[in-house]
Amino acid sequence: MTICTKPDAGRNASPFLYGQEAAAVAEVLESGQYGHTDVTEEFERRIAELLGVRDAVAVCSGTAALHTALLAAEVGPGHEVIVPSMTFCATVQAVIAVGATPRFVDIDPATLCVTDQLVMEAVTTKTAAVMPVLFGGRAVDLTSIRKELTERHISVIEDAAHAFGSRYGARRVGGTGDLTCFSFGPIKNLTCGQGGVVVPRTHDEADTLRQLRLLGVVKSQAECANTTSYRVDSFGLRYQMSGINAAIGLAQLDHFESTERIRRSLWRAYRRALAPLDGVTLIDVDPDRTVPHLCQVRVPHRDKVFAQLRAQGIGVGVHYPPNHLQTAFADWARPLPATEQVAGEILTLPFHQHLTETDIAQVATALGQALKMAGAASCARS
Ligand SMILES: Cc1ncc(COP(=O)(O)O)c(C=O)c1O
After folding, report:
1. What does each C-alpha distance from 73 to 57, 154, 180, 181 come to in angstroms?
2. pLDDT given at position 8
């Protein structure tokens, strides 16, 4: 059975199922075991195997992954965490959840990611962690400042919500020794429906994360079933991944090679289709080492172009309105010129595995026309 959502360019992003997911979920439902089960543990083993790491700790969302990773790194009140403002609000909310202060940094407009220099300029004596966001799937390696960060006991906690499968050189993101957080939400490179994984730095950190995601309970639920009590040794949250979600993820993992191939080939199709358009700057990736998650361009007259494309039923979006300009985070706002400039220009084009090269060519044609109309409207007024 193949279950597909609408296969067209009307959506900005869309889950892609290979057909085995429903049967995998049905099997878990029939088992009557819906919580953290051996299916969840199998999912963790398979993720660890793919990434080439010893431990992968599954949780219920990417936000839970970020929150537990910060707790495991002992980041808390009195600490600052360096985060880009150009990210989904979840990155910032996780910092606030542990009582730390977000220290917003600017980005390189070519990648939408932080740079080594921007991070170093933001380090203070209170900095406990840096959270680079691997925007659109692009790896951020911080190579030139890594030694200094380590000497200052500053943890690197990667927000790799967009970057499952991408690589740094020969290694997959998650396999380079940092705390890495993935999201497996509905539209990510791999979906569990909802879910996330933290890759810890050490085996001890893995144990801490396992306790944190299970209310601080020391034993697994399976062990508890055979005893009259259970032990709560530490703080924890109800953050585990259910077997139902893990089953979806396992079925998706069986096809991850296809996912990589399809997403890379769609990216190359976008590159070709957008190349002739004047005024359009693709926020490019290296498709050989990235599993692309979002396709974004910078365009003039963005709001008009956005409205024009939406009126034609093309599912464009904007990722993201900057966080330092959000009411909830206003206390930590500071001028971020590149972020503010880019925020008025970025446009997310439809990018999901239901698209065909023909859809992509049509999106590019419509974008070219929308740009001409927006430019002509501006000239007519001036
Ligand atoms: C950059 C980034 N970080 C964190 C998250 C949070 O992940 P989740 O939605 O699984 O909680 C997302 C979700 O889209 C994201 O895009």
Report:
1. 14, 9, 12, 13
2. 63
User: Are 243 and 102 in a shared domain?
Assistant: yes
SS3 category, 279? coil
- Whether residues 249 and 306 share a domain: the answer is no
Report the chain's C-alpha Rg in angstroms: 21
165: closest CA among 294, 291, 298?
291
> Is the CA virtual torsion 209, 215, 220, 221 positive or negative?
negative
| Residue 222, pLDDT above cutoff 80 | no
Using CA atoms, how far apart are residues 369 and 215, in angstroms rounded to an integer?
A: 54
pLDDT value at position 4? 37
Mean pLDDT, residues 358-380 = 90
Ligand 1 centroid distance, CA of 183 (Å): 6
Helices (H), 145-301: 146-151, 203-212, 221-224, 243-253, 256-274
Report whether 80 contacts 127 (CB < 8 A): yes
As given in the structure block, the two tokens for residue 291 are 């599993």
Query: Could you tell which of 68, 83, 88 is best to mutate to test the pocket of ligand 1, judged by most ligand atoms within 8 Å of the CB?
Result: 88
Our answer on whether the CB atom of 180 is closer than 6 Å to any ligand 1 atom is no
Structure tokens at 59: 């949780």
Q: Which residues are catalytic?
A: 188
Instruction: Specify whether 247 is located in the same domain as 267.
Output: no
Total domains, the chain: 2
Instruction: Please state, in angstroms and as integers, the Cα–Cα distance from residue 121 to each residue in 25, 115, 184, following that order.
Output: 48, 10, 32
Report whether residue 161 contacts ligand 1, using a CB cutoff of 6 Å. yes
Q: What does the alpha-carbon distance between residue 161 and residue 134 come to, in Å, rounded to a whole number?
A: 7
Range of the structural domain that residue 227 is part of: 21-253
